[in-house]
Each structure stands twice: as C-alpha cells, then as structure tokens.
Specification:
With about 290 residues, this protein is an alpha/beta fold. It has one domain (about 5-230): Aldolase class I (TIM Barrel). It has helices at about 20-35, 55-65, 80-95, 110-125, 135-140, 145-150, 165-175, 190-195, 210-220, 225-235, 235-240, 250-260, 275-285, and strands spanning about 5-10, 40, 75, 100-105, 130-135, 155-160, 180-185, 200-205. Strand 3 (about 75), helix 3 and strand 4 form a beta-alpha-beta unit. Helix 1 runs parallel beside helix 2 (about 55-65), helix 3 runs parallel beside helix 4 (about 110-125) and helix 4 runs parallel beside helix 6 (about 145-150). It starts with a strand and ends with a helix. The mean pLDDT is about 95.
C-alpha cells in the first residue's frame, strides 16, 4: 500500500490553450527529484472536465513514460456514467496505471444502493486497485459510512481519498482501515488530522508547489515525529487556505506561475484570479519566501 505524499497533478497549458506535454514531463521529473511518493493524474486539479478523451489518454501516457516506474501513477477514471467509468478504467489499466481513482457519481445523484452498485461494477471490471474519491463539495454526494463499509470488502477497492472536510466522517472511515483498505487525506488543511486517525498519506494540491515539504510532513508523522508534522501543518495552513480562496486549481496554478514553475493558464470556464484574491495569495507566498 502506498504511503506518503501523492501529488494531485495540474495540467500545464501553452498560450494557445493546448496541453504542454513537454512541461508535463518535466513536472514528473521534478516531483521524483523532490521525493513525491506518487502521482495522481486526471483528477479534479487536472481540469478533466475540459479535456478530451484523447488528451486524457496522452496525459497518462506521458506521465507513465516519464515516471518509468520510479513512482506509482494513479489515474482518475471516474464518471457519473458507470459504463464510461468502466471503459476508462479498463483503458488506463491496460496502459499501465498502478491504481485508479473513482469519484462518486455527480449531477445525476444516486441512492445508497446505486452508489454500491456503481463502485462494485467498476471494481469487478478490472484487476487494478481502486481508490474511492469522496468529495461532496464537487459531487453533491457525501458517501455514507454504510456504503463505504460495504464496498471496502471488495478485493480491488483498497482505500478512500477523503475530501469531505468532515473529521467525524473521516474518523468513522478510519474504522475500516486494515490490511486491504486505507485512507488518504484529500484536504491539505487537515492532512495531519487525517493521519492522526490512521491515514496512510495525502493526495495533495499543496504538493504541486511544495512537494518536498509535503512529503516531509507526511513522512514525519508516519515515522512518529508528530511535533514536526504538526508544526509543518500549522506553518503552511494560511498558504493552504489561500490555495483554495478561489476554485481549485485556479490558485495553485497562479501560485506556481508566480513561483516560476510556468504551467500556463486555464480552460474556460476557469479564468485567472481576481486582483484581490491574488493579492492574498501573493502575501502568503511572500511569508514563505516562495518567489
């Protein structure tokens, strides 16, 4: 089971709006050098709603080629269409993804029974390990404990990316942690609290700009240095909050560009930050000497 900091990788764009695959490859090399423990591609932070199927496939191919087995690569294969998610999962499995991230259905929200059937059908279709993605702020569905308990028994469902921000729910999910099921923080502002109830790591937006520090925070906690991990969580908290002052990934890409990482802009409907929120982000970056 993967431990540590898994970056929820952004998608770099050129000025004309096309994907900068060369820059994408460079980011993979940089993350390996900076001790990132795993790479998630095609997640929320990657702006997947605006990517074509061909672009998604090429992104995964580039990342797998550049990673070269040096770090595990997880591919987001979720959809609110169960059959489409199965097709994507099978495709990404064949391409060589080490694991899959499957989000709960959004917009056409389903019942508890529908959630169970959705996840189980996807898990039945592949041999690759699956992480469930719980992010009610995006999907409108907060996966109930009873659903997670049932699907966690499936041999291919090995964990949850918990991004509800609800520590009470996360603590209930922690009851399921065992040899075949783990939990990963999906909210950088509560990385250490999630670790404190048994989490194995984080799937992080922060790691896009502070990969080594995010790795060190998680590693410190897992190695028993709770004070160091706690101090790092607190040190970066105001900056983390600034990274979500507007819709992700707008602030993280602005921050990366200000820090000289040159990842380009966005695809509509996402757009550059407003001047007032960008000023807040810049102030927090100055405090951490990120320029």
């Amino acid at each position: 089971m993967l431990q540590g900091s898994i970056v929820a990788l952004i998608t770099p764009f050129k000025e004309d709006g096309s994907i900068d695959y060369n820059r994408l490859g460079d980011l993979v090399d940089w993350h390996v050098d900076q001790k990132t423990d795993g790479i998630l591609v095609l997640g929320t932070t990657a702006e997947t709603p605006t990517l074509t199927a061909d672009e998604e496939e090429e992104i995964l191919r580039v990342v797998l080629d550049r990673a070269k087995g040096r770090v595990p690569v997880i591919a987001g294969s979720g959809s609110n269409n169960t059959q489409k998610s199965i097709e994507k999962s099978l495709k990404y499995e064949k391409m060589g993804a080490d694991a899959l991230l499957v989000i709960s259905p959004y917009y056409n929200k389903t019942s508890k029974s529908g959630l169970v059937k959705h996840f189980i059908q996807i898990a039945d279709s592949v041999e690759t390990s699956i992480l469930i993605y719980n992010i009610p702020g995006r999907t409108g569905i907060n996966i109930p404990y009873e659903v997670m308990e049932e699907i966690s028994r499936h041999k291919n469902i090995v964990g949850v990316k918990e991004a509800s921000g609800d520590m009470a729910l996360a603590s209930r999910f922690a009851k399921l942690i065992g040899d075949g099921f783990n939990m990963y923080s999906g909210n950088d502002d509560i990385n250490v609290p999630i670790l404190s109830v048994g989490g194995m790591g984080v799937i992080s937006v922060l790691a896009n700009i502070l990969p080594r520090q995010t790795h060190e925070m998680v590693r410190a906690y897992l190695d028993g240095d709770v004070r160091k991990a706690r101090d790092m969580q607190i040190k970066y908290l105001d900056f983390i909050n600034a990274l979500f002052i507007e819709t992700n990934p707008i602030p993280i890409k602005e921050a990366m560009n200000m820090a000289g990482l040159n990842v380009g802009g966005y695809r509509m409907p996402l757009c550059p930050m407003a001047d007032n929120t960008k000023a807040v982000l810049r102030t927090e970056m100055e405090k951490l000497a990120l320029f």
